[in-house]
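[step 3/7] fold_predict: job queued, chain A
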Amino acid sequence: MVLLPPDSTGRRDGEKEAAAARQRARFARDVGDEAGQAWAHQPRRRRSRFTVGSAAVLVAFAALGAVPMLLNNSDGQLLQPDCQRSAVEVGPSRVRAGTDFAWQAAGPETGPYVLTVDAATVSGPAGGPVTVDTGRVLAGPTALTGCRSAQTVVDGPTVAGGHEVALFRRAGIGWERVAVALLTVY
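[step 4/7] structure written:
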């Protein structure tokens, strides 16, 4: 009896398998083996490609990825709308020098707001234009419609180190700093 292994790609060759089945049937007929003849003519069961390893990977994905994502109540944004307190978030919080990063701000609709990077103070009228003491203005003056801004992608700082992305809100005749997110540049 000749057993033909699968080819080098790991796939089975149907012609080789049919030839092997015919050879087994002839051999069983020649030696008078009735059980062998019956076995040679039975259709072969195809093995399922779904294995225990596949099941383990599926369970691991569900436990580590899908379930936390579904339970997060997220809409794909960095921040949920929050009309009570101001917040700003960056993503990712660690980027290479000169690489883009995303930001998003949330807070009460009363504004306007200005978003800066590495600025301690903001000056200028509520309608703009505004100036910063150091750093640069990323956006503003702008309103937070629906208590959240759109997620926006901007150029990151080119200098390595820690940077502050600050959200300022108009208060009276000046601007007050209401939220800060840290951005690490390497």
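[step 5/7] annotate
Residues 114 and 141 are 5 Å apart (CA to CA).
The chain has a mean pLDDT of 81.
exit 0
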